Amino acid sequence: MSKLDHLIVLMNSMDRAEKRYFDLHSQPYEGDKDYRLLYRIVQKMNYDAVSVKAEFSRLKPKSSFEITCNHLYQNLLEKLSAKDSESELEFQILKAYQQARFLYKRNLCNESLQLIRKFKKTALEYEFFSYFLLFAKLEIRIYNQLEFDSIDEDELVRKQSKIESVSRQQRAIENLTGLYNLISLRQIKQGPVRNEAEKTKLNDLAFNELQAISGQNKDSFEAQKLHLLFQSAYFMKTANPKSSLKVYYELNQLFENNRKLWGNPPFFYINHIRGILNNLRWFGNYAEMPHFIDKLKNLLSEFPAAQATILPLIFIFENRMLTDQKLFTEALAHLHAIQDKLTEIDTNLTFATKAEIALQTAVVLIWTQNYKQALKAVRPILNAGKPFSQLPQTKPVRFINILIHCELKDFDYLESEIRSIERELKKRGKPLKSEEIILKSVLIALKETDTKRRTKKLLVQKETLQYLKNNPFERQLLNAFDFIEWIEGKLH
Predict the structure, then answer these.
(1) Model confidence over 324-355: pLDDT tens digits?
(2) Out of 45-59, 103-117, 123-137, which region has the weakest mean confidence (pLDDT)?
(3) Which three-class secondary structure state does DSSP give residue 146?
(4) How far, in Å, are 35, 113, 152, 156, 317 from residue 149 at the CA level?
(5) Strands of 282-423, DSSP E
(6) Whose CA is closest to 319, among 307, 333, 308?
């Protein structure tokens, strides 16, 4: 992606509050600036990269587009990260450490120590152990420079022991993080264990994790969280949904007991719920999903700033529960019931979220045979331009678009679009087997006029897709839509 592509994606991710903040903190004192003009052009041209460049060149023929683009990108990055630092505790603690160092270098040691004492305690309370160590080591350095004037040997030993204790805790958490990342990688790239060799490797990893957690402070939220995340991944790898669900409940209770660590908005907790819902859906455990969807609903009133993140998730998972279970009439009614609320927050949604909503909307409309409405739902995503076409959320929308045009029997469009998709997939590497099968199935459904031959060919594609459904590499696309059921409908 070019710098302009990155700029467009960054601007699209901004919510109303961030746009207001940027407008307020980037007003020039004298005249207009090129980067401000470019900012307005990107919005005016609806994030279309080609139109943006052409319009800027027309208005500012003597200015460098690349320099202006880079300047706007850096300016946005600086202002938006500054806004985050005003609200997030982690940034406040890091800022306090920088101020404490500054005061120390200016020989204002007592003032520096006051900051250190306050934020060292906060860092420990919220388990920012690496920041605690920065404060604690700076504190010892200051006492050394003051020739230990206001501290005795016992207190110094206690402070140094605390540093050693927290250092061990931090190392243990880093070890647990590494083990969890390793099992997550295996889960994503390998799926469930398939043979004795993989089972032995997994058990060795589990043994190392148990050793790591046994020496850890059991009161640490981070350590307990990583331990439960590892267990949930382990049970996913061993295809044990019952035990996995039990861990999900334990993990959620851990979050509930440590609400002060969520942050505001609580994005990590929201992602945690999303992960649980995805796993429950993967195992087909729809009976347990409403419990966790209700957790999201409870957050709506408590964290209104996160509405643009939470409401789409509620819609997507409630609707997926219905479409997965072939309750298509109910899914359409649910779509109509929530559509106005989604429209209200549309300008506050990122492109990725809009793509997920458009995808699920199109799924409902396809199964209820509202093909023209389905086409209308996906068109804004497909017309968004190059910066967005490369995002992972766009690909399943393009495949859904193919199915819609197949139902509308738009043969000329399909031949062109399928060739375009095949070219793009090859540019990015070897296409997934499921991608090739879906495109091939569409062509068979359209071109093969002999009913028996068409049925025979489609049966082969259907059986291959069924086999691929457990492949972790193929899972994302096949989870987006029931392509197997769609092929089944074309057999007769």
Answers:
(1) 999 999 999 999 999 999 988 888 888 889 99
(2) 45-59
(3) coil
(4) 54, 13, 8, 12, 62
(5) none
(6) 333
